[in-house]
Amino acid sequence: MSSTETRPSSADVSVAGELTDQRILVLDFGSQYAQLIARRVREQNVYCQIVRHDLTAQRIAALRPKGIILSGGPSSVYQDGAPQCDPALFDLGIPVLGICYGMQLACAALGGKVDHTPSREYGRASCNVQVSDGLFAGLPESIEVWMSHGDQVSAIADEFETLAATSTCPFAAIRHRSRPIFGMQFHPEVTHTPLGSQILRNFVRGVCGCEDSWRLSDFADEAIQRIRGIVGDRRVICGLSGGVDSSVVAALLYRAIGDQLSCILIDNGLLRKNEQSLVIDEFSNHFQTDLHVVDAEDRFLADLAGITEPQEKRRRIGHAFIECFKDEAEKIENAHFLAQGTLYPDVIESGADPDGPAATIKLHHNVGGLPDELGFELIEPLRDLFKDEVRRLGLELGLPESLVWRHPFPGPGLAVRCLGEVTRDKLAILREADAIVVQEIQDAGLYRETSQAFAVLLPVQSVGVMGDARTYDRAVAVRCVNTDDFMTADWSHLPYDLLAKISTRIINEVKGINRVCYDISSKPPATIEWE
Ligand code: XMP
């Protein structure tokens, strides 16, 4: 979503902060892993919130966290302009865990020394645990950890003691002798530190004393009450796209306000095979919402005629979407609210939370952001949740796994996978090829292991033979990637047999295709989509 643009006023449906008085704060020093730390803490059923690194100790105390985690970050602590924290936070008596840069910062503030390592350490290391209680309770003497740093702590103050070391890092983990302050040079939050979750658990449960207090079922109950209170007897409109986020928003709202919810699905003619019927099945037949399906294929395709430039395609699709949505929304009486599937990472990255980190530069290419002029008040019931939590919530609300685990699909849909000009014929070919890719990956049991898998219709024709005849038909690229965050991605190393089956089926079953290629580029330098 283009969250930095002016936004309609938003009803405050955030309930997470009130649901539990047990929260862990992550102070973000620019780490690529800050969100991962928060997700890992939440996996321990403890609420975790990411805040800006320069929050004052007073403000931190006012948020009453049970523990504070200082994230890693790309800077060197002594460098000019390096992000700092308020040193008074170490005096609050609240447990602190510094990870990587966070540890270096704590040490530098409390009498230790940080130096450049001769060469940047990046990768797995074997770590010797010297004190196996507290953070390392229940862990073996030797554990595998993930290092990623240029600097490291070279001396600790007398008030600190060493908990663990590696052959190149004498202070892999440390703690203050009398205060609940801990540091760790390695990253417990990444999966390359296999016992990292246990270490974080020891911190949030053992050291901070947090209990099992963050449960999605409680969240759902609380959010439903809050939504009912805010909405009263007015009506909420929710745009459905077939994707996970909007589906979960709709399911939650339906649970809260039943027939006061109206859903709108704009079929822009750029949806995947059977997408419209999937949404109708779920939201009209199963949930029986007031579902408005707008068949706008002609309108979108007319707007796209002759357009080949990807950003111009996006712009036109975005514009047409707003127009269609507006026309339909005007027909719905007493509509006051517009529900959106904004997630916690969107909130963090947009800088919308006053305690949260400053906005980061991230390319948001979502279309479908609806402007102020629609005049609705926004309701964003998922703004406290990470994607994996949204999925779990979706299942709790009764959405089927096939919908909850669907791969993301871009707002401009097949238009950015139909390279060059978008036409009805090309879309029909692409849709069939795409359905085969997805179905074969599902049948091979690999759908959940891949992050996105789809077909791209290339703007080339090539020569082939079929039977005795020469063909001059189109080519399709199969794109399949694995990624955690969609900012970087690796191409999926699918088995050859599966690729062979996909290729054979597409060429045999989709008229107009005589060649299939597999895209083996990573992001960066390539992107996931081709346009
Ligand atoms: P790229 O191609 O930039 O994609 O590597 C990263 C993720 O974003 C999705 N994507 C979009 N999503 N509107 C969207 O809503 C768009 O215009 C758009 N372009 C790319 C892409 O599918 C991937 O998940």
From TrEMBL:
<comment type="pathway">
    <text>Purine metabolism; GMP biosynthesis; GMP from XMP (L-Gln route): step 1/1.</text>
</comment>
<dbReference type="GO" id="GO:0003921">
    <property type="term" value="F:GMP synthase activity"/>
</dbReference>
<dbReference type="Pfam" id="PF00733">
    <property type="entry name" value="Asn_synthase"/>
</dbReference>
<feature type="active site">
    <location>
        <position position="187"/>
    </location>
</feature>
<keyword id="KW-0658">Purine biosynthesis</keyword>
<dbReference type="InterPro" id="IPR017926">
    <property type="entry name" value="GATASE"/>
</dbReference>
<dbReference type="InterPro" id="IPR001962">
    <property type="entry name" value="Asn_synthase"/>
</dbReference>
<feature type="active site" description="Nucleophile">
    <location>
        <position position="100"/>
    </location>
</feature>
<keyword id="KW-0436">Ligase</keyword>
<dbReference type="InterPro" id="IPR025777">
    <property type="entry name" value="GMPS_ATP_PPase_dom"/>
</dbReference>
<dbReference type="GO" id="GO:0004066">
    <property type="term" value="F:asparagine synthase (glutamine-hydrolyzing) activity"/>
</dbReference>
<dbReference type="InterPro" id="IPR022955">
    <property type="entry name" value="GMP_synthase"/>
</dbReference>
<comment type="subunit">
    <text>Homodimer.</text>
</comment>
<dbReference type="InterPro" id="IPR001674">
    <property type="entry name" value="GMP_synth_C"/>
</dbReference>
<dbReference type="GO" id="GO:0006529">
    <property type="term" value="P:asparagine biosynthetic process"/>
</dbReference>
<feature type="domain" description="GMPS ATP-PPase">
    <location>
        <begin position="214"/>
        <end position="406"/>
    </location>
</feature>
<protein>
    <recommendedName>
        <fullName>GMP synthase [glutamine-hydrolyzing]</fullName>
        <ecNumber>6.3.5.2</ecNumber>
    </recommendedName>
</protein>
<feature type="active site">
    <location>
        <position position="189"/>
    </location>
</feature>
<dbReference type="Pfam" id="PF00958">
    <property type="entry name" value="GMP_synt_C"/>
</dbReference>
<dbReference type="InterPro" id="IPR029062">
    <property type="entry name" value="Class_I_gatase-like"/>
</dbReference>
<dbReference type="Pfam" id="PF00117">
    <property type="entry name" value="GATase"/>
</dbReference>
<keyword id="KW-0547">Nucleotide-binding</keyword>
<keyword id="KW-0332">GMP biosynthesis</keyword>
<comment type="function">
    <text>Catalyzes the synthesis of GMP from XMP.</text>
</comment>
<keyword id="KW-0315">Glutamine amidotransferase</keyword>
<dbReference type="InterPro" id="IPR004739">
    <property type="entry name" value="GMP_synth_GATase"/>
</dbReference>
<dbReference type="GO" id="GO:0005829">
    <property type="term" value="C:cytosol"/>
</dbReference>
<feature type="binding site">
    <location>
        <begin position="241"/>
        <end position="247"/>
    </location>
    <ligand>
        <name>ATP</name>
    </ligand>
</feature>
<dbReference type="InterPro" id="IPR014729">
    <property type="entry name" value="Rossmann-like_a/b/a_fold"/>
</dbReference>
<dbReference type="GO" id="GO:0005524">
    <property type="term" value="F:ATP binding"/>
</dbReference>
<keyword id="KW-0067">ATP-binding</keyword>
